[in-house]
Task: inverse folding
């Protein structure tokens, strides 16, 4: 039996090629929910609660990198009712579809996110733009898909916060006038392994 204090998949928060990331999450799909929820996964509910304070719950929302749908479920619990989901991993997306919480879902790719600029007023990327998952450049790509005033809600876990690639990407978007940070709070990410995360909401300028 794995000790709950063990960090999930020790090599998870390391840089890797996209194909390897897809393989990691495809292999993890069947046990992902039990593994992360069992270790006190708090970021999705923290992000959803923060977002609910900054926009109407009927806004069209994209759960980008939705995985098995844990983030979408958290959004539903605080009142969001028009949510679409996309992910690069077919096995994770199948789990998300089975939850019945998304209006529609599709499999995306790094080359084609599968939606036109301006389609969504709110994009959520919980745990997606992070070390070992989507590269830091994804932050600028997602902001570019929003119209002025649109919101991007995301999270940086502790390993990501310690990687200058990601923090520099965030600082660049703010300093270049592409976005402003309207909410930022550090709190629990995986409680049982003592890992935290920053929840952030950016407004496109």
Result:
């Amino acid at each position: 039996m794995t000790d709950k204090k063990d960090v999930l998949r020790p090599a998870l928060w390391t840089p890797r090629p996209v194909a390897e990331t897809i393989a990691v999450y495809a292999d993890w799909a069947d046990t992902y929910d039990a593994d992360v929820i069992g270790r006190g996964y708090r970021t999705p509910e923290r992000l959803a609660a923060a977002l609910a304070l900054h926009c109407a719950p009927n806004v069209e929302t994209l759960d980008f990198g939705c995985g098995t749908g844990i983030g979408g479920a958290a959004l539903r619990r605080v009142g969001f009712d028009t949510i679409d989901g996309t992910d690069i991993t077919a096995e994770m997306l199948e789990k998300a579809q089975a939850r019945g919480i998304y209006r529609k879902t599709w499999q995306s790719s790094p080359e084609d996110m599968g939606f036109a600029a301006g389609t969504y007023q709110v994009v959520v990327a919980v745990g997606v733009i992070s070390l070992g998952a989507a590269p830091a450049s994804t932050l600028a790509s997602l902001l570019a898909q929003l119209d002025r005033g649109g919101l991007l809600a995301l999270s940086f876990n502790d390993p990501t916060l310690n990687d200058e690639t990601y923090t520099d990407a965030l600082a660049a978007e703010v300093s270049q006038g592409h976005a402003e940070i309207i909410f930022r709070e550090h709190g629990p990410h995986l409680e049982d392994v003592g890992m935290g995360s920053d929840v952030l909401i950016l407004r496109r300028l």
Q: What stands out?
A: The CA atoms of residues 104 and 205 lie 28 Å apart.
